[in-house]
Design brief:
single chain; 4-stranded mixed beta sheet; 10 strands; mainly alpha; two-stranded antiparallel sheet; Myeloperoxidase, subunit C; 20 helices
């Protein structure tokens, strides 16, 4: 699960489904590894056996999807990478930072299960010997990193990920965080930095007379529940039809792990991981007005990969240079919080691309580091095309088609309308299928890959998931929150205390609290 090139899926009842890397490498001693399976996926709906489109169609559709024909939407661009951060949180296999001698098999199962509990930020906690490296000596604060002076801007504490020590540059630039995927691109890395800052500010301001032995666990509970509230009330309604989100959280799930005790260990539906939640790939922009230095769309996606420690080499440095620190005012709309002093002109503000069947052209040429491919791989190799890779993974796990999932969900009492053949074929502002032969179009329309079907649904809902996609996403998040150690689903009386009132806590509120409401911290380059 560490990179996009080595994904494998342990599906309960089916075993390990793997395509590219020969299975998941062990993270613990062999005798400990044997007592529990890898990260645990499940199948929400039916298998798609016999309903998979051919490689030739996947290549053509992938090429059409990656032609960059889509338009901008209305969602602030920061939510693209918040979505990536939450995905890594949900799919983080905590056993990679746990010591087997100290962990029971029951805890290992929990560690390999999805929960929206920020274990990608906290690891196994400061008390675990292997996770202590993420914390300051006090065992309360998370470590922060310091940027490198550049372009007339000083080195700045707290604006880079903490990075490793060693004798080689590669060792020095390695991020000291539980999930290395959060250093895959600069935008998700800066999001992780903001979450570190949020936790540390809670430690500094919210613990009062809490006994020392309870300070960390109290801080983690405060942070986690506010984070869950933000995801449920701010992030999910932006990407999904709000009525579906409200129905699931108010009235319960109808299709996924229905009726299980909240204390049962949850699984991750493969239809979410390989299909529905890849919606974020459609939201990625080719270029950003990133900050005062990389302005007017000069913060290209290629640069966001380069100035990371996993996909790139931080531009040849061992720390992020100060000229690449994010201006969060350009990624989130602080007017929502009534902060006009933190707004930027409209032509400097970044909105995500509309959720539809198009992705931007740079995603046709993924960095080889990101996909575990040799540096010599040609830039036009289909395996570097994110759309082709997504469609191929669906085949690898015999994922149900969109039509199958629509039928399945309706059978569970979900009120949704299937897309017609004409809607799938023609879309609404997404890609056109003119590059396919008549037979290929018919095959695609008859058995539509789930990811493509869900993006087509969004085209008919102003760029928000609806129907199949919205239901899978909302039910998965509901179960992931329910299965967390700290849970706003299980603690229905809980309300946020760090926002403007006891019902409101949005991503802008999280950032305002984390950065003390100061423009000098939210946009340190000015």
């Amino acid at each position: 699960m560490a990179t996009h090139g080595s994904e494998s899926f342990f599906v309960l009842g089916e075993g390990l489904l793997d395509k590219t890397a020969g299975g998941r490498p062990p993270t613990l001693a062999a005798d400990v590894e044997a007592v529990t399976p890898p990260f645990r996926f499940s199948r929400l709906g039916p298998r798609g056996t016999g309903r998979q489109i051919s490689e030739a169609i996947r290549k053509k559709v992938g090429s059409l999807m990656a032609a960059g024909t889509g338009g901008a939407g209305q969602i602030p661009a920061g939510f693209t990478y918040l979505g990536q951060f939450t995905d890594h949180d949900l799919t983080f296999d905590k056993t990679g930072v746990m010591l087997g001698d100290h962990v029971s098999p029951a805890h290992l199962i929990q560690a390999r299960s999805p929960a929206l509990d920020l274990d990608s930020l906290y690891g196994a906690g400061p008390g675990d010997p292997a996770s202590a490296q993420f914390y300051e000596p006090d065992g309360l604060h998370l470590k922060t990193g310091k940027s490198k002076a550049d372009g007339g801007f000083a080195a700045m504490d707290g604006f880079d990920l903490p990075r490793g020590a060693g004798t080689t540059n590669a060792q020095k630039r390695k991020a000291i965080i539980p999930d290395p995927r959060n250093d895959e691109n600069l935008a998700v890395a800066q999001t992780h930095c903001a979450m570190i800052r949020f936790h540390n500010r809670v430690v500094d301001t919210q613990l009062g007379s809490v006994p020392p032995s309870l300070k960390f666990i109290t801080a983690r509970e405060i942070v986690t529940k506010h984070y869950q509230w933000m995801v449920r009330t701010d992030y999910l309604p932006r990407i999904c039809a709000p009525g579906v989100v409200n129905d699931v959280f108010n009235n319960g799930r109808k299709a996924f792990e229905v009726g299980l005790p909240a204390t049962d260990v949850p699984t991750m539906p493969i239809e979410f991981s390989v299909g529905a939640f890849r919606l974020g790939h459609s939201m990625i922009r080719a270029a950003y007005s990133w900050n005062k230095v990389f302005d007017d769309l000069t913060g290209t996606l290629d640069y966001l990969f380069t100035f990371s420690g996993l996909s790139g080499d931080l531009g040849g440095q061992t720390r992020l240079i100060s000229t690449w620190i994010a201006d969060f005012r350009r990624l989130y709309d602080f007017a929502e919080a009534g902060k006009p002093n933190l707004e930027v002109p409209a032509n400097k503000f970044n909105r995500a691309m509309r959720i539809d069947t198009s992705i931007v052209d740079p995603l046709r040429h993924l960095p080889t580091n990101t996909i575990d491919a040799p540096a010599s791989m040609p830039s036009n190799d289909p395996d570097r095309n994110l759309a082709f890779r997504n469609l191929t993974r669906a085949n690898m796990v015999t994922l149900a088609t969109g039509q199958q999932m629509a039928t399945f969900l309706r059978g569970k009492g979900v009120n949704l309308t299937k897309l017609t053949s004409a809607q799938i074929r023609d879309g609404s502002g997404g890609i056109e299928l003119g590059g396919l032969t008549k037979n290929q179009r018919q095959a695609l329309v008859r058995n539509t890959p789930l990811w493509f079907y869900i993006l087509r649904e969004a085209e008919f809902n102003a760029g928000r998931l609806k129907g199949v996609g919205a239901r899978i996403v909302a039910e998965t998040f509901n179960r992931a929150i329910e299965g967390s150690q700290f849970s706003i689903v299980n603690d229905a009386a809980w309300r946020p205390t760090l926002g403007p009132d006891n019902n409101t806590f949005r991503m802008v509120d999280l950032l305002l609290f984390a950065f003390e409401g100061k423009k000098s911290l939210l946009a340190p380059l000015g």
